[in-house]
Amino acid sequence: MVVKRRVTLGDVAAAAGVSRMTASYAFNQPTRVASGTRERVHAAAAELGFLGPDPSGRFLRQGALRSLGLVLGESLTYVFDDPQATRFVAGLAQVCTTAGYALTIIPTTGGPDDADRVAAAAVDAFVVWTTTADDPVLAAVRATHRRAVIHGGPPTDGFTLVSIDNRAAARALATDVWATASAPAVLSFPLDRDRRAGVHHDLDPQRVAYPVTRDRLAGFRDAAADLGLNWAAVPVAVCALNDASDARAATTALLASGRELDGLAAMSDQLALGARDALLAAGLTVPGDVTLGGFDDSPQAAAADLTSVHQSLHDQGAHAATLALRGGSGSPPASWQLTRRLSSTRR
Questions:
Q1: CB 307 within 8 A of CB 272
Q2: Do 96 and 320 touch, CB atoms closer than 8 A?
Q3: Helical H runs in 257-332?
Q4: What sign has the CA pseudo-torsion 271, 273, 276, 278?
């Protein structure tokens, strides 16, 4: 089989009887070329089937590729399935659109080719979705010598961190949700990249790999101590995904264990709303039998009268993109506040 050679700008210049530079000007700076010459170049391009100059060459000459890379330690569908990720990516995209940049999503799987995928990414800077300190992609990103921002953590040398104070926020949430509880529990994000679901007792936050999960568990433990509750007796039901169906299953398992449950702090509104469905299906009331709260203060949380930690993942995404594209010496913690609603108020 004969492979047809790609038509180049040099071919067009030769066919039009002009220099390569003149042919380039005819496409990229047309006002610098006489109209007759410009028309001759375009006619030659049309006859040869030339699709136009390769933009990568111009970007390389300018020292910029005009693209921001999002390193995502999840499947690509995660961006569309997880509300937190969707809002975050929308913030990235808003800044990229305004700045005239593309957004390149680089999903990683934990496989041996992750580092190569990062190294080959044609981007000017990186934003890394929350991961673990031992994730090889962090070293791969650092090796590119491009600006990098990490969302959620872990804090990493050479990266700017964008996050809220998850420990303080979780402490405030659990202090409110568990204020009248004697048998509290936690609905948790995954502990590590293995994403194993299950129920844990006396869980040491410092042994948890994911930084957001670790910090929120530490905040819940702080709240237990503040309220005189025994953290070792607090069950932590870990969900494999930030998904309402996982939360329903985890809450149903907690209820089936026969242990009393009267206060449930969840790491997201998705998990809290899934738990609420399971509680109501079991004939329990919120907040009469079980007080409940989550994170993110989503529209769904407001509609369900759910107490929640308000934070803007959209704003955090926009801030991360701005830092990655423009640089910056540091980033203070993003803002958050506790929005108290009926779900944590036992009458």
A1: no
A2: no
A3: 269-281, 299-303, 313-326
A4: negative
Do residues 251 and 264 touch, judged by C-beta distance below 8 A? yes
Percentages helix, strand, coil for the chain (3-state, rounded to 5) are 45, 15, 40
Pairing relationship of beta strands 236-238 and 184-188 according to DSSP bridges: parallel
CA-closest candidate to residue 180, choices 308, 343, 344, 307? 344
Residue 1 falls inside a structural domain: no
Q: Does 326 fall in a domain?
A: no
Q: How many domains does the chain have?
A: 3
- Residue pLDDT, tens place only, 266-305: 999 999 999 999 999 999 999 999 999 999 999 999 999 9
pLDDT at 63: 54
Question: What is the extent of the structural domain holding 157?
Answer: 62-162
Tell me the CATH number at 281.
Answer: 3.40.50.2300
pLDDT digits (tens, 9 = 90+) for 18-55: 998 898 888 877 788 898 998 999 899 888 888 666 55
Tokens representing residue 97 in the block? 């659109």
Quote the distance between the C-alpha of residue 309 and its chain's center.
Answer: 18
